[in-house]
Here is the input.
Amino acid sequence: MATDDDMASAPVERQLLPRTATVDPDGHLRVGDIDLLDLAAEFGTPLFVYDEFHLRQACRAAVEAWGDGVAYAAKAFLCRAMARLAHEEGMHLDVASGGELHVALSAGVPAQKLILHGNNKSEEELGTALACGVGRIVVDSFDEIARLGRLLDAPTGRADRPRVLVRVTPGIEAHTHEFIRTGGEDTKFGFSVASGAASQAVAALELLPGVELVGVHAHIGSQVFDVSSFEQAGEVLGRFFAPLGLPELVVGGGLGVPYINGESAPTQAEWAAATRAACARTGVDPAARISAEPGRSIVATAGLTLYTVGTIKKLPGIRTYVSVDGGMSDNPRPVLYGSGYEVFLPRAVAAPRPDAVRLVGKHCESGDLIVPNAFLPEGLRVGDVVANPVTGAYGYAMASNYNKVPRPAVVFVADGSARVVVRRESLEDLLRLDS
Ligand SMILES: Cc1ncc(COP(=O)(O)O)c(C=O)c1O
Here is the structure.
């Protein structure tokens, strides 16, 4: 039987790589029919590489599983190219701030296809959403209802009434990290079903003449592997939603993805089927639009990060530190959540990885870890390009300029060509906001 160490030191599993990944006769990994080493040479490192075919397939799977209305949660990774791609593939977009709204609109996504989220939307954000005619606003607090009421007292310039959903917390503790759990009672998001706040919010919105209440929304957390969490949420939500007779129920995002060897996750179709079955058991009208907002599961595995090894420090009897040219500024997830990742050598992707090392970044923090207990093939040298798979979600999206490290470039690859969709920040960019 394979032990955990066997699994960790085996080559990185196929399921962690983008769909078009292939190994060439020299043992190099190609994505979108381009050698990753050529991408590193042409665009420099750190570099985010996304497989466009994979992104498109993931969007199509979501549309197939959930039908019209399914939205890509833009917070997972947003730039104009990504917004356009999701729109072209038939997805709506969930935007969680005025900034995300701005990027989506500037990409040409019609406002009608946008759903505005946020637990503390400002008057300006709500005003912009009303003026441009976003498709849905997900209402999160009584203060927001009051804010909407005030804004709608003034002319908005639109003929139709804005459609709103009420965000509720079903009281489900998803089996995931505390910081990405959002459906329990102790949360800043939404209105509690159990306390009656959700019913009060529904009543308040029904009385607000300027809006059309169309549905209920919930999001129980992210990186959820266990279909039973979605089933439980579906049942609690279904019981709340069915008697309201509203046409739309949105169950948020949260579908998990494997990050390390040995993990496995349900598919979009399994998630949708479990949710629909749970809703049906609680009497939800079969004609209601049951929909979702996947983020991570659309982009995570489509993306990977290339780094260059700059320093290899062997501490006898302790461990070997391998430092690369990025770190917590391009991927804060290991620091924030203790998230696990794999690392591999694109020049020898199928090689066993017997050497235990600690993969770290270049930032002035001991906590700047990328993979604390990493395994790499023998013979690693300074100048090698290493790759972290499954960095397509909440990596670039959460990137910062800590230590004034410029943010990496992002390239989309397809059919043998690569296009820069976000250029690398320059040193000049680091000064552009200074007065
Ligand atoms: C309201 C809402 N919808 C969708 C998502 C996307 O979740 P995921 O990326 O796990 O699919 C999130 C993530 O935080 C969220 O808060």
